[in-house]
């Protein structure tokens, strides 16, 4: 033991002791701490509560902090009388200890910096009631938008644009307007708009009277007709502007339009450039996250410092949040000249990282070691596994597993427990289908789309099983250590 290093006292249950000690022997030298382990008189650590642990906690001299399993429920202030040391929850799964202690392959200090502005357009803004417009602006800002763009309807002048913009500005939003109608734009600018989308040869003259920044687009994107002339006219009039050669959908000149952005950057090396990325995310049958990352990577490398996106089509309804995550990822990659890999897990929503597997031998040892009537559910090797006291069943079909439970004589599953098992097995099958990691009583990882799971557990059946487990553990307290077990129970 070293006096210069922190000394952490880990609390666990019997089944997790072996795996925890193995993990700490490997991890502690790299993470720079010393450790001790206290094995509580209970089989499954996740069944412990903080008040229950506090009554039994024995902290060795020299300890600097205490760590309990992440799945243990109850308030941490339950330890106030048991120890003056800080008590923290570790990860829910022992397999995440390395990451919990910051053992990553790269330095991510300062991660999150970015320099790309996200402009989120509210399409058909004139059709929305004031309350709905404000609610949508708040939602987009919460997701990461820096500016709210009010999208107007061509050919139908919005007489209430001034009131709408004034309301948004009063709420603290930076606002732009997407309209070619000079009168509509003028009313919006007078109300507080400071960026106009878009300007070409048809309205460039009026732009000199608005007194705000504008976005220049070509009269004809495919030929860039009128683009340079509009830029020159605005520059002569002293109008601040940024450039947008216009991104085209796949099948309508997508590759050529990317080339135009490169050409514009070459010809206008110091200009501010904007890219409207909704033309790809909204008009392509594909989840938007990957598209947004690729396009923002292109923007980061070419110095395009603003993107316009929208969230109309269902598969792009999280585009703003994806762009907010993507801009940090691509800034990190480009600035540090490193691959954008194993850095931002929140952008991997469908599959996730490689699933962890315990293996058949470990599950068999667990079945032999369990004394309580609880079921543990695992998803690996293309099957759902149900493990209990002396029981290891597996099948890709949850219905077949219920049949196997009946054949095994387990007739103690009441309706609430059956509902719980069915719910967990459905999650397990989803995990197998998509190659995701499954952890019982934990939500599947959908990246930034993950929702906290309401931890009901197996209801009354679980409470009865937990009490039975504690009684059995008390009865066998003087027995030797249990065989090694899967780390998920830690």
Describe this structure in words.
This protein has helices at 14-31, 50-56, 97-100, 130-143, 161-170, 182-191, 204-207, 227-237, 254-267, 278-281, 288-302, 319-336, 360-369, 398-407, 415-434, 459-475; strands spanning 7-12, 34-39, 65-68, 87-89, 117-122, 147-151, 175-178, 195-199, 213-216, 241-243, 274-276, 306-310, 376-380, 383-388, 391-395. The protein is an alpha/beta fold. It has three domains: 7-100; 117-341, Dihydropteroate synthase-like (TIM Barrel), CATH 3.20.20.20; 360-489, no CATH class. Helix 7 (204-207) links the parallel strand 8 (195-199) and strand 9 (213-216). Helix 5 packs parallel to helix 6 (182-191) and helix 11 (288-302) packs across helix 12 (319-336). The chain is elongated. Residues 458-473 and 475-490 have low confidence and may be disordered.
Quick overview:
By secondary structure, the protein is an alpha/beta fold. 38% of the residues lie in helices and 14% in strands. It folds into three domains: 7-100; 117-341, Alpha-Beta Barrel (TIM Barrel); 360-489, no CATH class.
Topology:
Elements: E1 7-12, H1 14-31, E2 34-39, H2 50-56, E3 65-68, E4 87-89, H3 97-100, E5 117-122, H4 130-143, E6 147-151, H5 161-170, E7 175-178, H6 182-191, E8 195-199, H7 204-207, E9 213-216, H8 227-237, E10 241-243, H9 254-267, E11 274-276, H10 278-281, H11 288-302, E12 306-310, H12 319-336, H13 360-369, E13 376-380, E14 383-388, E15 391-395, H14 398-407, H15 415-434, H16 459-475
Parallel strand pairs: 1-2, 1-3, 3-4, 5-6, 5-12, 6-7, 7-8, 8-9, 9-10, 11-12
Antiparallel strand pairs: 13-14, 14-15
Helix pairs in contact: 5-6, 11-12
């Amino acid at each position: 033991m070293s006096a210069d290093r922190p000394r952490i006292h880990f609390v666990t249950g019997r089944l997790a002791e072996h795996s925890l000690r193995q993990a700490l022997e490997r991890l502690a030298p790299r993470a720079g701490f010393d450790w001790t382990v206290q094995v509580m008189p209970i089989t499954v650590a996740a069944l412990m509560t903080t008040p229950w642990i506090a009554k039994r906690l024995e902290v060795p001299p020299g300890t600097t902090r205490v760590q309990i399993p992440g799945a243990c429920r109850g308030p941490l202030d339950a330890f106030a009388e048991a120890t003056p040391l800080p008590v923290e929850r570790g990860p829910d799964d022992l397999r995440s200890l390395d990451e919990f202690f910051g053992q990553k392959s790269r330095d991510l200090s300062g991660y999150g910096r970015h320099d790309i502005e996200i402009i989120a357009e509210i399409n058909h803004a004139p059709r929305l009631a004031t309350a709905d417009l404000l609610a949508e602006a708040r939602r987009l800002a919460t997701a990461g938008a820096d500016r709210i763009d009010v999208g107007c309807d061509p050919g139908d002048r919005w007489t209430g644009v001034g009131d709408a913009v004034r309301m948004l500005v009063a709420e603290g939003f930076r606002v732009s307007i997407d309209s070619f109608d000079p009168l509509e734009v003028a009313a919006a600018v007078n109300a507080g708009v400071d960026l106009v989308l878009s300007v070409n040869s048809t309205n460039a003259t009026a732009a000199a009277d608005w007194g705000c920044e504008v976005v220049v687009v070509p009269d004809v994107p495919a030929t860039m007709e009128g683009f340079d002339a509009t830029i020159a006219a605005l520059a002569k009039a002293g109008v601040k502007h940024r450039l947008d050669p216009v991104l085209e959908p796949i099948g309508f000149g997508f590759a050529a339009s990317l080339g135009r952005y490169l050409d514009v950057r070459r010809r206008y090396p110091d200009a501010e450039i904007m890219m409207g990325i909704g033309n790809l995310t909204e008009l392509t049958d594909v989840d938007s996250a990957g598209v947004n990352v690729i396009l923002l990577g292109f923007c980061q490398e070419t110095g395009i410092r603003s993107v316009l996106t929208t969230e109309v089509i269902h598969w792009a309804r999280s585009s703003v949040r994806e762009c907010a995550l993507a801009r940090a990822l691509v800034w990190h990659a480009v600035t540090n000249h490193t691959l954008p890999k194993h850095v931002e897990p929140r952008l991997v929503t469908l599959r996730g990282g490689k699933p962890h597997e315990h293996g058949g031998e470990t599950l068999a040892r667990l079945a032999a070691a369990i004394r309580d009537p609880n079921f543990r559910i695992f998803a690996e090797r293309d099957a759902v596994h149900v493990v209990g006291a002396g029981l290891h069943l597996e099948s890709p079909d949850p219905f077949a597993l219920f049949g196997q439970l009946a054949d095994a004589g387990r007739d103690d599953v009441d309706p609430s427990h059956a509902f719980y098992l069915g719910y967990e097995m459905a999650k397990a099958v989803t995990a197998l289908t998509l190659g995701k990691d499954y952890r019982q009583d934990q939500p599947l990882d959908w990246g930034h789309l993950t929702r906290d799971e309401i931890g009901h557990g197996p209801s009354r059946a679980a409470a009865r099983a937990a009490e039975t487990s504690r009684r059995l553990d008390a009865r066998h307290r003087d027995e030797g250590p249990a065989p090694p077990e899967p780390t998920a129970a830690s």
